[in-house]
Amino acid sequence: MAEDLSTSLRAALLTGDARGKVMATRSLVRRWRSGELATGFSIAMPDHPAWPDRVKVLPPSQMPKRCKGGSARNRIALWHSLAHIEFVAIDLALDIVGRFGKEMGEEFIADFLRVAADEAMHFALIDRHLATMGAAYGDLPVHAGLWHSAEETAHDVGARLAVVPMVLEARGLDVTPATLERVRGQGDSRGAKILQRILDDEIRHVAAGARHFERFCRIHGKTPENHWKLMVKQHFRGSLKPPFNDSARLAAGLSRDLYGSIA
Ligand SMILES: [Fe+2]
Ligand SMILES: [Fe+2]
Predict the structure, then answer these.
(1) What pLDDT does residue 175 have?
(2) Does the pTM of the predicted model rise above 0.70?
(3) 112: helix, strand or coil
(4) 2 C-alpha to center of ligand 1: Å?
């Protein structure tokens, strides 16, 4: 089969090795931008991406509780959980392009390929930071909760956008400032820098999700606010609860009226 965007996306999704996935992602984004890789959707995305063999996946209920203290063990647990979020975020971005790029068009593809490249960078930064603590991705168990949201919304780009960028990534905007303060308090200025960069990029990711969700609603004659609430109710099992990072959410185009009404 001739190589096109979808075959490269699928290959990156099915790369289990963590650094291999980062490299495959960066390379396909670079080649697509330079015109070397044609926009084409000849092949379907896999139901499940490959993850490193050494990463042990547990049901959320069996995950060990994390403590917030500054001991070496707690710090590694924090950064390991962040590494996993960014690693799955790479897959989520690759998948949304491969699954819905044909339907949503060129601007959507460009926006979410940029997200994929950002997530690959976030993971690489955290992976390097973990290495300075003598740890590596896969040292601790993880859960597959984030990927379940992708499976739950694999049939409908409106549902995917409503849940993944507009609920899950938006949640990241709410919790990251407190984590950043904690990390800064531990004297970890390098870690704080990484988190600040991630926070800045994630505002853009949420914004892209909200923008394309609105466009989707316009095309399909739906009211964004009502449709978002419906999709969240149908496809998101957790609850939306304060405190919300109102300023970061507003910068991403999410108004308080929207999420306040559902919280
Ligand atoms: Fe990220
Ligand atoms: Fe993101």
Answers:
(1) 95
(2) yes
(3) helix
(4) 31
Residue in this structure with the two tokens 């394309």, named with its chain if needed: 212
Nearby residues for ligand 1 (ion, Cβ within 5 Å): 86, 89, 119, 122
Q: What is the rounded CA–CA span in Å between residue 173 and residue 226?
A: 23
Hey, what are 245's tokens?
A: 């990072």
**Would you say domain 70-260 falls under CATH 3.30.565.60?**
no
Residue type for position 94: L
State the distance from the centre of ligand 2 to the C-alpha of 123, rounded, in angstroms: 11
Cβ-contact 171, 206 below 8 angstroms: no
Q: What is the pLDDT of residues 120-150, one digit of tens each?
A: 999 999 999 999 999 999 999 999 889 999 9
pLDDT value at residue 79: 97
Selected residue with higher pLDDT from 261 and 44: 44
Distance 32 CA to ligand 1 centre (A): 21
Contact 127/137 with Cβ under 8 angstroms? yes
Sorted by where each begins, the domain ranges of the chain are: 70-260
> What is the whole-number distance in angstroms between the Cα of residue 1 and the centre of ligand 2?
31
Pairwise CA distance, residues 3 & 201, whole Å: 30
Distance 168 CA to ligand 2 centre (A): 9
Q: Give the per-residue pLDDT at 1.
A: 67
